[in-house]
Amino acid sequence: MPRQPVRLLTARLSLRQPAQADAEAILGILSHPSVVEHNPSDLVTELEDVEALVRHWLGHWEQHGFGNGCVFEEKTGRLVGNCGVRWMTIRGNRVLNLMYRFHPSTWGQGYATEAAAGLLQWAQESLPAELVVARIRPTNPASQRVATKIGLRRDPAFDDQGEDGVDWAFTCRW
User: Fold this and answer.
1) Total domain count for the chain?
2) At the top level of its lineage, which domain of life is listed (predicted)?
């Protein structure tokens, strides 16, 4: 099992395993239509649905020692997003899917880039042989910029059909 990032720290953020107590704050993020604009099937409007989602995330943590985590501003302690890596299969290949979502009030502050960069570094140190893939809609240039800023590159070999449409792949292989 890889070294578990119990608490991953960046310059302004801390990332940790989610807890059921985080569900209400997560709902405040995932219930924003703008947050899930490119993945509308991920819109969550009921607390019970977020509690189930957190249980799902925790299941990945329990099985693998890592997963989707909660992101907090270090200065305020406010939960501002979720970011993580999880196992998935794309075109028959087992990969680490890197994902990030943040409250709209934080957009433009570099939080997604900072958190994703920290997680990519953790993944490359803890699971160096594994391919990290960020799956991003072609119509989501903001998320594409985050991926390229942290060093991922467009990799059409891993493009795949997502629940809400085609996902472009950005990977760490080059």
Assistant:
1) 1
2) Bacteria
DSSP helix/strand/coil, 127 = coil
The number of helix segments (H) and strand segments (E) in the chain equals: 4, 9
- Taking alpha carbons only, the member of 148, 123, 121, 36 closest to residue 81 is 36
- Tokens 């990799």: give the residue: 155
Among the listed residues 129, 150, 136, the one whose alpha carbon sits nearest the alpha carbon of residue 10:
150
Q: Say how far apart CA 148 and CA 49 lie, in whole Å.
A: 32
Domain that holds residue 118: 7-171
**Structural domain includes residue 2:** no
3 pLDDT more than 60: no
Domain-located, residue 1 = no
Distance CA 42, CA 161 (A): 15
Give per-residue pLDDT as tens, 51-71. Answer: 999 999 999 999 999 999 999
* Residue-wise pLDDT tens digits, 71-130: 999 999 999 999 999 999 999 999 999 999 999 999 999 999 999 999 999 999 999 999
